[in-house]
Design a protein that fits this description.
The structure holds 2 protein chains of 2 kinds. By secondary structure, chain A is an alpha/beta fold. Chain A is 28% helix and 14% strand. Chain A contains 27 helices and 33 strands. By secondary structure, chain B is an all-alpha fold. Classes of the chains: A alpha/beta, B mainly alpha. Chains A and B meet through helix 1 and helix 27 of A and helix 3 and helix 4 of B.
């Protein structure tokens, strides 16, 4: 055997390996094409349309942001985004305490203290680290700076290197303060002590304060600061006009704060309590400065009692997570350029453990969870291992604290006891349990707010509304805006339906009022939002459960927060501090209350007005599996205000799923039929329509039937199976595959030049401003805290505009889940503990976003009440709680009653257009024993039937593929099978390995009908969006040759040729050698 | 059979063993509840056939079959294990992406990920050993 043979053989093997490797690399690059594009800044596929006329006209950016040639003026656009970010943060900042120290004058010499003064939590969607240009507190407060600091690379998207630096062209008026540089030296050095610290980032896991990473929550000790900056203390005297101390906590997806989750030696017992080091830096501030301001940089309610009661702290400002440029807004508030007008979106308790929700929160596993067990005795489905019993009934947030306070004052319901008292010295006392109530917020001026006359009451069929006239007067000495919070108390019948003693009914905000100036606003209240859900009510049609209004006195008042409102109501009932022996903590204003004497149905409960929904569906219980007691009567005791002490929640740990629950938990929701006659259900018709022919058509237009009839079963199934991040080609209706969704709430997770479509305003990658990162706004609680419908609407417009720029029609956001308690790690993605505030904020966002053709698909529908075990956790609650506290937040934007008779200003379409929200993302969690995605009661009974929801409803990532048929039956229209997109065949398969296919459902008439409905809903939803800008008969997906494509193709080609050559040479040589040998 | 075998035989034997081990890990990873591997059946088939080709090449070499035939079998084994690697990587990369972001608390996902890593390691090792074997002299040690 010759040496050459050996050489050729070696070459053959080596080139074979390289050839195979190139092939694998090519496959991977194409498989993750989108992510590769994002990382490398390339565009490998684009939707291109060559037609003219109607293209790019349905939705366009504002003229003010366009160049004359129709391209986007990127400079003005960025300025616009910065300006709004600033305004939003200012509007959502809440002044909690102020003895006149604020506002500060510009130009002072100040010291910023606290690790988060240097490393602020600016946040971004889903709690993910900030990417892109930002302005820190120091930047904003100091003299005008022109060098924005770019965020460090982060672990989630560490391939995005912010390269946008041309910020010297932008309007960046700051506070002109002289900032003490010494503390920053210490913080900078301290941050190097541990790895993984990102400057403008969040901490990804908060399950336990014991994690190494959780040290990032805390401040360094004074000793550590002085180690790194020996002249720290002396520097304070040099920059002594004021001290601003920043304390805060992050928020995150996929993690909750843990009860007792603290590091030993940090000096706190709970993670939202101040640590020793935080207290120490505050002490240093109070001992060395005459003016001390504390900024609270959190969205999970920290325990602020010690700040409130510390007389040496002159002011407290809640700044939430203000976004990339939000510190400009915070600076505006600090310096008086903006007068704070926000109110807290949550109750800030003295001790968060006092919330009844905290009794049942965290990790609970069914004792009979066993994936290898028997379905007749065990929970075998791995997604169903955990549960949580939400035994607090409707008493979440202020609904608890204010109601119990009310009952203590009135001496009813055994409220006045030690049961549930955590911060109180003896019996439960509101003054000791609550630091700052829901809705509370101060201003640099003062206002009087009064109800003028009687409201205009409108009753017609199943509509019942009241329009209150509210007069607000600036009684102070500086100009300012006043939010207007209108509260209501419905009459409570002892032992009857649970009711909150006070609840937010509606809100608005004045324009800027000069001292002495008044403004009158009309505040619209829909009594549907005040109605209670009586799940035990026997309906006349034999069903159970409906909305009711009890006969009695309904009290309405405007106030600075829920507690002041309740005190007003108590005052109107004759209660004072004096005559309640101090049980009342402050005298209310009885004259600020209007009482409506409602006779109901001739003195009896009104069970008819709201017994039929706005969509003309008779109401009845739809969630018969939501309560543990539905399966095991009497097993769970719900909290009741009829007896606070006797019904205080117990912890439901180590529960065993009863036999009645097993089928639900094990996913036995639907049996696919195989032998039904489905010949009458049309697929594959040739009706000559393309989907874009139906752009902006009404849902009930008869042409939809014709269009959907053209689709094949495979296409319908494929649309559902790949209804998430990537959609497939649907040749029968001319739909081109693509990626059409974005997953966030406070901006697009894209650079401005990441356009998916070839629009006239698409920003070139060569544009100096092109790499400006768009996800920059404050997170959800700030938006809610503004109590400003206009600002909330404009937030939607802003995100919609971003979506239009990058060519995305669907947003999976905002988050509309309720802040069940402070420990939910994802509170930063959700607005508030109150469903009225949440629902209205979400509605304004969705309607605003639609101005630019962005379809908001809020999440998570529904009951995503904790991140722990969120992938399938079974939350059990009463249907009253489900509907009033959680579902209402979705009902409001889906019904969008506000816009029924008053279209938004941008609308010039049909007068009777339905502005209801057209998108939803479902929840990973269950409702009771049933997956939310497979809950017919939730998806069809409530969302579709009662509320009239139409549109695109997608699962969360990869949810529930093993109950595909059940999900399709329930009414979900798409799966987010992230990453399982395939060019050939579905490759969507159940967890049991079955491949979803047309064959599977050919004999099931119900499923075939449902998948056609799903197709109708989804395609119709697309036809309302900015996707229609880009579509006509010429639209096609164009592959673009990028350098990485060229590289792997070249590698495959070259190595392939070399392999073949070496194989030929080797073969010839080997055969020759063998012949010679023989 | 193993006596007096050349280094190429031993190396190919090790390669085949690695691929066989990778098959086991492929099965384990793909059997993780909720984390089956997309197109996993093709990956399994490819790996199994790769093992067969590897074993056949060893047998052929021990029986002093033609060098070309032995090499072709090993080349086939190499391509097949790379195909299986591609199947595994394309699926587990997605799982990994989720683990380092929104899905970090899912213990099943971590299980699928770690066993997938183990599979990948043995697949790569097997591939490299096949290449090494191909660079060595074939035939018996005598």
């Amino acid at each position: 055997m010759g040496k050459k043979t050996g050489l050729y053989r070696a070459l053959c093997f080596v080139t074979a390996f390289l050839f195979a490797l190139s092939g694998v690399a090519g496959l991977m690059l194409e498989r993750f094409r989108q992510q590769v594009d994002e990382t490398l800044g390339t565009t490998s596929q684009k939707v291109v349309s060559t037609g003219d006329g109607s293209l790019w006209s349905a939705f366009t950016p504002p003229e003010a942001l366009m160049n004359e040639d129709g391209t986007l003026n990127t400079h003005d656009t960025i300025q616009h985004f910065i300006d709004f970010s600033r305004e939003l943060a200012a509007g959502g900042t809440v002044l909690l305490k102020n003895n006149g120290t604020l506002p500060l004058k510009k130009g002072l010499s100040i010291s910023l203290l606290g690790m988060k003064s240097y490393y602020p939590i600016l946040a971004s969607g889903q709690g993910m680290p900030i990417v892109g240009s930002i302005i820190t507190l120091e930047d904003a407060l100091s003299k005008n700076r022109t060098d924005f600091r770019n965020a460090r690379r982060n672990v989630q998207r560490n391939n995005i290197k912010p390269s946008f630096k041309k910020l010297d062209d932008y309007d960046f008026a700051g506070g002109e303060m002289k900032i003490n540089p010494v503390p920053f030296q210490a913080y900078e050095e301290y941050s190097k002590e541990f790895s993984g610290w990102g400057r403008f980032t969040y901490i990804p896991t908060m399950m336990s304060f014991n994690d190494e990473t959780s040290r990032h929550f805390d401040d360094p000790s004074l000793e550590t600061i002085e180690k790194y900056a020996p002249d720290f203390m002396s520097s304070l005297h040099e920059y002594n006009d004021a001290a601003i101390v920043v304390v805060g906590r992050p928020s995150s997806e996929n993690g909750d704060y843990a009860v007792g989750g603290v590091l030993e030696g940090q000096g706190n017992t709970e993670p939202l309590e101040l640590t020793t080091n935080e207290r120490e830096i505050i002490r240093v501030a109070t001992e060395n400065f005459d003016k001390v301001i504390v900024l609270v940089n959190c969205v999970n309610a920290m325990e602020l009692g010690e700040l409130q009661s510390n007389d040496k702290i002159d002011a407290i400002l809640w700044i939430a997570h203000p976004g990339s440029f939000g510190m400009l807004g915070v600076c505006d508030v600090l310096t008086g350029e903006a007068n704070p007008s926000g109110g807290l979106p949550d109750t800030y308790a003295a001790r968060n453990l006092s919330a009844p929700a905290m009794v049942n929160f965290g990790d609970y596993k069914f004792t009979n969870f066993n994936t290898e067990g028997s379905p007749s005795t065990d929970v075998t489905r791995h997604q169903s291992s955990s549960y949580v019993v939400e035994a607090e009934s409707i008493y979440v947030g202020y609904r608890y604290y204010e109601t119990r306070y009310n009952d203590v004052v009135l001496g009813q319901g055994n409220a006045d006891s030690t049961v549930g008292a955590v911060a109180s010295q003896g019996n439960w006392r509101y003054q000791e349990e609550v630091v700052y109530p829901f809705g509370y917020g101060l201003s640099y001026t003062t206002f009087s707010r009064e109800l003028v006359g009687e409201p205009k009451i409108t009753r017609s069929g199943h509509n019942f509304t009241m329009d209150f006239t509210v007069k607000v007067t600036n009684t102070g000495s500086v100009a300012g805006r006043s939010n207007i919070q209108l509260y209501a108390q419905a009459p409570y019948i002892q032992g009857g339906v649970e009711k909150s003693a006070i609840q937010l009914a509606a809100y608005d905000i004045t324009s800027l009022l000069q001292p002495g100036q008044s403004e009158t606003k009309v505040i619209h209240v829909d009594m549907q939002d005040i109605a209670s859900y009586d799940m035990l009510h026997q309906n006349s049609n034999g069903t159970q459960g409906t909305w009711i209004l009890d006969a009695g006195d309904y009290c309405f008042t405007v106030a600075n927060g829920a507690h002041e409102a309740l005190n007003n109501v108590l005052a109107s009932q004759g209660k004072t501090v004096a005559n309640t022996s101090g049980l009342m903590d402050a005298d209310g204003n009885a004259s600020a209350v209007w009482v409506y004497h409602y006779s109901g149905n001739n003195g009896a409960v009104d069970d008819t007005t709201f017994a039929v929904s706005k969509n003309n569906i008779t109401i009845s219980n739809q969630l018969k599996y939501s309560d543990w007691n539905d399966y095991e009567p009497g097993r769970v005791q719900q909290l009741s205000r009829s007896d606070w002490s006797g019904t205080w929640p117990v912890e439901y740990r180590d529960m065993t799923a009863p036999e009645a629950m097993l089928a639900d938990l094990n996913g036995q929701y639907y049996t696919v039929k195989t032998d039904e006659d489905t010949s009458g259900i049309v697929f594959g018709a040739d009706n000559g329509l393309k989907f874009y022919d139906l752009a902006f058509r009404d849902f009930d237009d008869p042409d939809w039937q014709k269009l959907i009839d053209q689709m094949t079963i495979d296409e319908c199934l494929g649309l559902i199976a790949y209804g998430g991040n990537e959609f497939r080609d649907i040749p029968s209706i001319g739909f081109i595959r693509g990626s059409f969704t974005e997953n966030s709430g406070n901006g697009m997770q894209s650079e401005m030049c990441d356009s998916r479509v070839d629009s006239p305003w698409a920003v070139s990658k060569k544009d100096n401003n092109g790499h400006f990162y768009l996800e920059l706004y404050a997170t959800a609680p700030t938006v809610a805290a503004s109590f400003n419908p206009d600002l909330q609407f404009r937030m939607g417009e802003e995100v919609g505009l971003q979506a239009l720029i990058v060519g995305l029609p669907i947003l999976w956001g905002p988050g509309l889940n309720t802040h069940r308690m402070a420990y939910n790690g994802r509170n930063g993605d959700y607005y508030s503990e109150d469903p009225i505030l949440t629902g209205n904020t979400g509605m304004e966002f969705a309607i605003g976003a639609f101005k630019y053709g962005l379809l908001a698909s809020p999440k998570h529908f529904a009951f995503n009440d904790q991140e722990t075990n969120r992938g399938g956790v079974a939350p059990f609650m009463s249907e009253q709680r489900a509907r009033e506290v959680e579902l209402r937040a979705f009902q409001i934007p889906i019904e969008a009653n506000k816009y029924d008779n008053a279209a938004p200003a941008y609308w010039n379409g049909e007068k009777d257009h339905d502005f209801g929200m057209r998108g939803l993302m479902t929840s990973f969690s269950k409702i009771g024993g049933i997956e939310c995605t497979a809950s017919e009661g939730l998806m069809t009974g409530i969302a579709k039937n009662e509320w009239g929801f139409r549109g695109y409803a997608v699962t969360d990532i990869g949810d529930d593929t093993d109950i595909f048929a059940a999900v399709a039956n329930a009414g979900v229209t798409g799966y987010d099978l992230r990453g399982r997109f395939s060019e050939t065949g579905y490759d969507a398969h159940t967890n049991d390995g079955e491949t979803i296919s047309a064959e599977m459902f050919k004999g099931d008439a119900n499923i075939l009908t449902k998948i056609k409905e799903a197709a109708h809903n989804t395609i119709w939803a697309f036809c309302q969006t900015n996707l229609m800008n880009a579509y006509d008969s010429s639209t096609a997906y164009q592959s673009v040759m990028t350098w990485w494509k060229a590289a792997y193709m070249t590698a495959i080609g070259v190595t392939g040729v070399l392999f073949v050559l070496s194989l030929i040479l080797y073969s010839v040589s080997a055969l020759k050698s063998r012949k010679e040998h023989n | 059979m193993f006596k007096h075998q050349k280094a190429s035989f031993i190396t190919a034997l090790a390669a085949t063993a690695c691929v066989l081990i990778s098959l086991v890990f492929f099965l384990i990873s793909g059997s993780t509840v909720g984390y089956s591997i997309s197109n996993g059946h093709w990956g399994l088939i490819a790996t199994a056939v790769s093992v067969l080709f590897g074993a056949a090449s060893l047998l052929a070499q021990s029986k002093k079959a033609g060098e070309l035939a032995v090499s072709l079998m090993r080349l086939a084994a190499l391509f097949l294990v790379m195909a299986a690697l591609a199947v595994l990587l394309m699926d587990r990369a997605v799982v990994a992406g989720g683990l380092f972001t929104w899905n970090s608390l899912d213990k099943y996902a971590w299980q699928a990920f770690y066993t997938g890593i183990a599979c990948l390691v043995f697949q790569l090792l097997g591939t490299i050993l096949f290449v090494a074997s191909g660079c060595m002299k074939q035939g018996s040690a005598e």
